[in-house]
Structures are given as structure tokens and as C-alpha cells.
Amino acid sequence: MSGRTTNKANGTMLDLWRPPEAAGDPIGCLTSTFTFAPGLFDEQCLARFLEIESEPNREDLVFLLERETRLGGVYAGVLADHNSAGVDHSFRWDVLPVRIHGGKQHAKISLLLWSGHLRIIVASANLTEPGYRLNFEVALGLDFSPEESDAETLSQSVGFLRSLLAFVPGAADNPPEIQRAARFLDNVSERTRRWRQHHHEPFPPADLQPIQNNFAGIRQQRPLLHNRRRTSPEPDPVLTPIVPPAKCQPRFTKSDEEP
Hints:
Blueprint: E1 5-7, E2 26-33, H1 38-50, H2 60-71, E3 75-81, H3 82-85, E4 94-98, E5 109-114, E6 117-123, H4 129-134, E7 137-144, H5 151-165, H6 176-192, H7 205-225, E8 251-253
Parallel strand pairs: 2-3, 3-4
Antiparallel strand pairs: 1-7, 2-5, 5-6, 6-7, 7-8
Helix pairs in contact: 5-6
């Protein structure tokens, strides 16, 4: 039996930021993105995570007051590629610029922690209006609770986000924003350490083999595609889309349908 409960419900990706029933009080969230729109995170993602009831575009002052009340000691942080991190945002949560020499921070993973529940969201969408409300994107939510957890998956997710902290300029000096993010990740590990473990069975090799073959084939064929003329309308076999295993049922969405 898997310790990971997959959120399979149809809907928008913003729904994944809402706490499930009996999740308890919000503790904190840390997310990563390539491009970043602080308004979307503050008014849509964070508002759902905290269960803020007022509307930011209709009740600006009420929304701000409710956000301040509900944030309290809750941690919130965003790890964004350094090219997108230098934007105005609320000082009630952190934006951590990630600078990777010769590369970009392109991962989109979110870790949401409530007192009785934890959710990991892996998505293709950036934290932007097009990413969450206009584009066709895919997201997978993995849910963990004290009754059903998976230490390996949690450890890998926390470890990945922790590794990004090292790429924040000035991280070696351990500034306050790095300390807050590290404390939150420590809190996640400590709170979930005694949660009941259900070790999942790995996918059978047959599920993974076609993907490995495809990637290898693309690397081998790519140089040839520039030097030969296509003589057949048939697509290259190595570029045939792969259907994910049945037990991974991600959520597809085009837009946020809420008014």
C-alpha cells in the first residue's frame, strides 16, 4: 500500500492550495518557480492556503487585515529564478532568488504544511497568471497525514528544496530569510518524522523502460535531424508521447473557473 495519497479530483491547480478536511491550522509553505507573479501567490495561492474568505479585488483593506491575522506565525516563501525574483512583494513572506551558474531554477514544487496534513504539489506551471489560469498545465498533488505517510518521498522533497537554498546569493552568511526557510524545512521533517509509514512499491521496470529508451533515442537522433530531409510524414518513433503509469493520475487544467 502506498503512503502517498494522490489528489485526483478534477479542477483548477489553485484548488490544490486549499487544505483538505481536518488538515488543521496552517504551519507554512515553501514553493519554487521559474517566473513569478507575486500578486497571484499572495492573493490566490496563499489566500487559499490560509482559507482567507475576503476578496482582494473587492475588499482590499479587509483582505489585508484578514491576511495579517491569519499569517501570524505562519511561514511562507518562494524560491524563484534570480531573473524573476527582483519584484515587489509583501514583506510578510520571503522571495529567495536562486542563481544557478550556467543554468536556471526551473523546478516547480510546492510543500504545504498544516498541523495535521502535508501536501506536495509537482506542476508544470510557473507561479504566474498564465501558468495557473490560462495555459494548459499539469499538476500532481501528493497528500500525507499522520495515519499515512512516506518518509522517502518526504525526505527527497525536503532535501531538494533545502539544496536550492545553497544557490541563493549570500546564503553562506546565513541571512534571516535563509534561516526562516531552513527552520520551516526542519519543522516539516520533525513534525512528519513519527507519522505512520506505508512504504510504496516502486513502479515496475516496464513502466520506466520506454521513457529511458525515448530519452536515449532523442539524444542519438537529434544530430541527424538537422542533416537529413524527412521523406515520410510518419513521426520519429523516439518522439512518440509516453502515457504515464495508470497509478499517476495528474490534474490537467486550462484556467481558473472561479469568478
